[in-house]
User: What shape does this take?
Amino acid sequence: MSRTLRDGAGALLVLASLVTLFRTVVELRGHDYLAAILLCVMGLALVRGGVELLRPTVGE
Assistant: This one.
């Protein structure tokens, strides 16, 4: 049960990070550079968290 929960949370974090990074591109098109930088940092942090949760399942 805990492995499934960890894998689901990891996959959800990676998906959320992709959505956040897509929003970064949208903000860059609107020339809002500060918002784009903040979204990029948040998206990369979400990717890192999701990868850490998925690491035991996928392997290194």
Summary: The mean pLDDT is 91.
